[in-house]
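User: Need the bound-state model for adenosine monophosphate:
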Amino acid sequence: MLILKKIEAVENHLKQLKKRNLKIGFVPTMGALHAGHISLIESSRQQCEVNVCSIFVNPTQFNDKNDFDNYPTTLDKDIEMLNDVGCDVLFLPSVKEMYPEGFVNKNKVDFGFLAKTLEGEHRPGHFDGMAQIVEKLLRIVKPDKLFMGQKDYQQQLIVSKLIKKLKLKTVLVISPTLREKDGLAMSSRNVRLNPEARKLAVEISRTLKGVKAAIHHPKSNIQQVQEWGGKRLSGFKGIETEYFEIRNADTLEPVDLKSKKLVALVAAKIGGVRLIDNMVLN
Ligand code: AMP
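Assistant: Bound-state model below.
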């Protein structure tokens, strides 16, 4: 695997490969890789000839400095995992490389309600920072396909809108959330859970599964099911629920009669670690 730290080096290398008509697949990450990330690289390998992964802990998408400072880094292990899965290029830029002095984000795309609700409400500025770095990375790598996870449900909707609004040629491919045996969604942040918090964290996916089962009951009422989910989770001492919502799966608008596809989304803090998860309900 080629490890490149400079934008120009990535651009030059990929230009040569594109001339040979090879399809480029791209998986952007913040490192501390786990099997969920690796499943994205595997999808890329199945669908593209050249697989590029980036590791960059993007400071502009963290609204909480403490969260940024404590974000796990396991670079040696990450490189080993990427080599094992057959990744071709790792782009590993510094903050200075991505944000040179005086850098301004010129075309701020307006995502409307999609970026204001849920994570947008609880992590102000998060999606502007995320969209800024994804756009920058897409303009460098110019992938044929971009692979992202359903784990970050709102993020993938926003990136899909970003690609449409900027009229980029990249196709977005979404992969299902990989989970631990007990159901906990894999996340880089899970390593920060102490044993007690790790035990409690399983209640997030249990509640989502409970909601999915309840919504299929012929007499179910969406509002009541949502309330049940929120109350169930908040009922555990040690779980601080930020939101538990059932929304229109395409727009994230509150559910109305037109909503055909529903998604339950949750954010909760356990032992000081903020976790998110979601489940499509139909
Ligand atoms: P991150 O490093 O957390 O920014 O995630 C990089 C990519 O991996 C994003 O597209 C995530 O949605 C995806 N991802 C994170 N966790 C999982 C998971 N458990 N299963 C599948 N994809 C995931």
